Amino acid sequence: METHFRTCNLCEAMCGLKITHQNSEILKIEGDFEDNFSRGHICPKANGLKDIYLDKDRLKFPIKKTENGWQQISWDEAYSLVVSKTKEIQEKYGRDAIGVYQGNPTIHNLGTTMFAPDFFRLLKTKNMFSATSTDQLPHHFASWLMYGHPMLLPVPDIDHTDYMLIIGGNPLASNGSMMSVPDVAHRLEAIKNRGGKYVVVDPRKTETAKHASEHFFIKPNTDAFFLIALAKEILAIKNLELDESKFTGLDQLKQEINNFNLNDIEQITGISGETIRTIANDFCSSPTAVCYGRVGVSTQAFGGVCLWLINVINIISDNFDKKGGAMFTLPAIDFIGNAKPKDRFSRWKSRVSGYPEFIGELPVAALAEEMLTEGDGQIKMLFTNCGNPVLSTSNGVQLEKALETLELMVSFDIYLNETTCHADLILPPATGLENPHYDLTFHVLAIRNTAKYSPPLFEKAEGAKYDWEIFQELRNLFLGENQTIVPPEVKLDLGLKFGPYQLSMDVLKQNPHGIDLGALKPIAENRIQQKINLCPDILAKDLSRLQEAKHELFATDSKQFWLVGRRHLRDNNSWMHNSAKLMKGKNRCTLLINPADSDFLGLKDHETVVVTSRVGQVEIPIEITDDIMPGVVSMPHGYGHHRKGIKLDVAKQYAGVSINDLSDEKVIDQLTGNSAFSAVRVSVFSLLDLKK
């Protein structure tokens, strides 16, 4: 028997794994207790690595759609088709006739992260899209405006804080997210053990909320009002004096938030003024404190404002760049460096709806309409890379229709899923345990500075290719060059040697459990090349839109509900649903509804209901629970595997329905362009009543 140590790459937590294997067979996957970062913790998803490796549905060689179905072809034929059709379509229609969508797993795969951008940049198209605008774009937007770089993202110093306020986040299910934190349950419990507390504000009593010191329900899409009230109370408590050589905008901030009335905020959010004052007092009186917001605050109509205000709260409470507060990492490979601020927003707009570009990408809410609407710049060919936007972006049914209009679609993916089944060509890379791994991005978001390299465990199949080979070979063919194919370790070694700790690949290979580089330290002065702006004009102007929205939020309609998503520890978006180990157990694709609402509608537990929105409807069984507040219903993300053309045998058995057959592509954060999944209104009807 042999032992292999590696970092799990299935979510952001970077858990260390100990894999026991013999004769190419995995015998056991367990936590690595010698990994200083994860301390032996793993979640159930780790076993999915074995399932993916052995999955009979996983693609390993290029396949092409023909009149007689999918046919395997050679890499040379696949490459030639990609390059020739790309050039042909751009010559005929223009550069922007090519669209690119990159999914969440791109950032979890080292070779794709390193080498896919070089190929896609060659296309010189403005129609670039990614999962960023379905998830965390407001985080990057606020950091760009306040700190000068979209990846300068403050991370909660969870191991040293005395008070943690979690808004719209569920780290016990997500293992962090924009805060890479393995063993988060014990780390949160440690806050209470040292005499502190952590508090959750969420429209659902989540897995994290159930263990929290306190939980407060809040109406969806109203967090910006709550955060304004909290900031207002903190400013009243604190006699704030900020260093004017480092900060600007305090007076304007005070002026802007004083325009909001606390009595209005009580009615809008459902949280009393007394509760808000208590939270503010507890936050300010704790030796250290940190406010953390995640998907719930990011994916709503005022996501940009929410993330700005969370940063503001950490600063004005004197918990920014401070032990136990919100801090920056200093990763071993520092691709941020001392980057100077530059224009990254609204340099161009989407052709149909005029949505703004940010960091080189357009909001994915515009993707379908850019394919469906005729005219100059219409997308005629699409690349998808490690993504399943039919299930993960708003109005999946509309997107399906749009994909069928393309002249050519090429997917880099290991599965024939709900999106790639519409492709003409699929190029699958080697994956998971066949790949080397280093978390370039998540070390930037980690709650501790560490570095770790994982070599491949198994050889890839004969004739298969790594992602880093595919993208470099396509680049060479596109340019007519013959550059040497460089493995990722070459670039990693350079990044490590020129990084702040002057490490090397040799050093990392000698430390299979990773290298602990220490706790987070105050380094903002060295990372930020501008004054921190507490009240950027772009964000301040969006407060007028927030004021206008309050009239709609005051209104109540007993026949309509706010629809919010949810995540399960054994789910990872849609692409882990073909793992039998992760999918077994009771049905997780249900609609959570409060008892008061189910009684009003005359519904019984586990009854199948019809949920409708502006864009579509689904049928789904309900779960009646006090864990969801009245007026709100919740569905999980990533299901909907009933669609024709897919080859995911396990996922089909747990098909469920897609929340994004209800989410509305027109409901977005108008400022940033991020999809506002938590701002969609739906109606619920008894299936039995509709059939009568």
From TrEMBL:
Tell me which SUPFAM superfamilies the record gives: ADC-like, Formate dehydrogenase/DMSO reductase, domains 1-3
Highest taxon above the source species: Bacteria
Ranges where the 4Fe-4S Mo/W bis-MGD-type domain occurs: 1-57
Keywords assigned by UniProt? Iron, Iron-sulfur, Metal-binding
Q: Does Metal-binding appear among the keywords? A: yes
Show the InterPro entries listed in the entry. Answer: Asp_de-COase-like_dom_sf, MoPterin_dinucl-bd_dom, Mopterin_OxRdtase, Mopterin_OxRdtase_4Fe-4S_dom, Prok_Mopterin_Oxidored
Q: Which GO terms describe its molecular function?
A: iron-sulfur cluster binding; metal ion binding; molybdopterin cofactor binding; oxidoreductase activity
Q: Give the UniProt family note.
A: Belongs to the prokaryotic molybdopterin-containing oxidoreductase family.
Tell me what this protein is called.
Answer: Molybdopterin oxidoreductase family protein
Task: Give the source species.
Answer: Lacihabitans soyangensis
